[in-house]
Amino acid sequence: MRRSHAATRRHLPTSPFKAPVVAPVEEFALRDQVSHDRYGLGVVTGVEEGIAVLVDFGSHTERIPAPYAKLVKL
Fold it and tell me: How much is the pLDDT for 14?
């Protein structure tokens, strides 16, 4: 059985390799205008800090979970 340990490895300070860059999770606030690759333009109507955001896309509302890969603040 082969296991992937990439997510559990930690960077040692004495390592000759650079530490992996961890992108910060973008934060959204109520009434932020956003764009989603699949759903289009919308407005944030609810925020669950670091977990998910509720976005009103006009015809429907979607709950977008973190890390918000396809969601961009305008």
Answer: 85
pLDDT for 53? 96
The helix (H) or strand (E) run that includes residue 54 is strand 52-56
**Positions of the chain with pLDDT under 70:** 1-8, 23
Pairing of strands 71-73, 61-65: unpaired
Q: In the numeric block, which tokens belong to residue 44?
A: 């944030």
Contact at 8 Å (CB) between 25 and 66?
A: yes
* Interacting residues of 59 by C-beta distance below 8 A, sequence separation 6+: none
Other Cβ atoms closer than 10 A to 64? 20
45/29 Cα distance (integer angstroms): 8
